[in-house]
Design brief:
By secondary structure, this protein is an alpha+beta fold. It has four domains: 63 residues, MutS, DNA mismatch repair protein, domain I, CATH 3.40.1170; 89 residues, 2-Layer Sandwich (Alpha-Beta Plaits); 57 residues, DNA polymerase, domain 1 (Orthogonal Bundle), CATH 1.10.150; 163 residues, 2-Layer Sandwich (Dna Ligase, domain 1), CATH 3.30.1490. Helix content is 47%, strand content 19%. Strands 8, 9, 10, 11 and 12 form a five-stranded antiparallel β-sheet that branches. A three-stranded mixed β-sheet has the order 2-1-3. A two-stranded antiparallel sheet has the order 4-5.
Length: 402
């Protein structure tokens, strides 16, 4: 999709069209750019840029928080279109996927027709534009989809077509070559895809498996299959929040973990997933990040997630915190989950539920929040962050307790 979040907002509010729109944090907040309109990109703004830097480049831009629930709904509509053509679909993000049409199309001519149908339907049914690449491999298709953005279409039919296109481009044009890898390659005098080809043996020897992959891609070799995504294939599910000011009150962090645990439970429950471990993430004021993990019998309830993260929080160094996160890992689905003794005894599950209910009542009393009928909204995106920021500002003043 073309500047997906921004395009959805412009579609829903046409007055934003033609203006530099930046989706992410607000200039007065901590955070980064999630995406931006093409008008904003003319100022040098890009995804993952610090929001303060973006504001310096474009102080007259329009800055908005993302609405992830809206984007997820649009993403589901998109996948409905994509599934009409693909034998297998491998989502990369809400707005991007690999579609295997080998058998549904049969040849490149029909694949091209499908691509144009997808573009047409995306515009007519959803009011959005997308860029499609048709190619012989995943890497070539990804490259082709970027060639004519926005609203583009491009084909790379053969390995030689790919090599001819890429041969004199910067090494960062290759899939898997990020800024750090590019810097390492540059240090030894490798700047272009041609350089990689000419020194392929050296690169494979220096960089191991990654080096071998890089050299294969430089020659247009990519035999990876399109793998249909299943939620249980994810390694973990987590939610985190960055505070607008550092927090040194660990009691407040425990309050925040209640809402993060509920959010993780909600997301896992929607996919029928359970975890075998709970993790806690902290980023301190000096940007040092730590992660703590604990194996459990079953991490499928907010009570368990909350209880275990609080135990881990009690054991870490008490310093001002910039970010806190909670999550579960070692995921499995309902069908593959083995019943435990707790499943046959309602008391442990009821106890965990009681813990969360008590903590929610405490939060309501402490902050004057009304969760009745509104808790589901707090699980998601902007509402969660706004609620936590409200809690940070209104926590009763008192010293931190270790």
């Amino acid at each position: 999709m073309d500047a997906f979040y921004a395009s959805v907002e412009i579609r829903d509010d046409p007055s934003l069209a033609g203006k530099p729109l930046i989706i992410g944090s607000l200039p007065t907040e901590r955070g980064v750019v999630a995406t931006c309109s093409y008008e904003a990109r003319k100022y040098g703004i890009h995804s993952a840029m610090n929001i303060k830097d973006a504001y310096r480049l474009c102080p007259h831009g329009i800055y908005m928080h993302p609405n992830f629930e809206k984007y997820r709904k649009v993403s589901e509509q998109l996948r409905g279109i994509w599934n009409d053509y693909a034998v297998r679909m491998e989502p990369v993000a809400l707005d991007e996927a690999y579609l295997d049409v080998t058998y549904s199309a049969g040849n490149f001519e029909r694949a091209g027709e499908m691509a144009r149908e997808i573009k047409s339907r995306t515009r007519s049914e959803l009011g959005l534009t997308c860029s499609v690449g048709v190619a012989y491999s995943k890497t070539a298709a990804k490259t082709a989809s970027e060639e004519k953005k926005p609203d583009g279409y491009f084909e790379i039919i053969t390995r030689q077509d790919f090599v001819d296109l890429m041969i004199d481009r910067d090494v960062k044009a290759l899939y898997t070559v990020g800024a750090k890898t590019a810097e390492k390659l540059n240090r030894i005098g490798i700047f272009t895809v041609r350089d990689i080809q000419e020194r392929s043996e050296e690169i494979a020897e220096r960089f191991g498996r990654h080096g071998q992959l890089i050299t294969e891609l430089a020659f247009g070799i990519d035999d990876r299959r399109v793998v249909a995504y299943k939620p249980e294939d994810a390694k973990s599910i987590s939610r985190e929040v960055t505070f607008q000011e550092d927090v040194d009150n660990f009691d407040l962090l425990k309050d925040v973990l209640v809402l993060l645990a509920l959010s993780v439970e909600d997301r896992a429950g929607r996919h029928g997933l359970h975890g075998k471990g709970v993790n806690l993430k902290l980023t301190y004021f000096d940007m040092q990040s730590i992660t703590r993990s604990r194996a459990v019998t079953s991490a499928d309830s907010a009570g368990t997630i909350y209880t275990e993260t609080v135990r881990m929080l009690d054991q870490v160094e008490k310093r001002p915190v910039r970010l806190v996160g909670a999550g579960i890992y070692k995921l499995s689905g309902d069908e593959g989950r083995q019943m435990t003794l707790d499943d046959y005894m309602e008391e442990p599950a009821a106890k965990q539920q009681h813990i969360i209910e008590v903590r929610l009542r405490e939060l309501q009393d402490r902050y004057g929040l009304d969760f009745a009928g509104h808790l589901e909204d707090i699980y998601h995106g902007t509402v969660l962050h706004k609620t936590i920021e409200y809690m940070r500002k209104h926590y009763p003043t008192r010293k931190n307790t270790d």
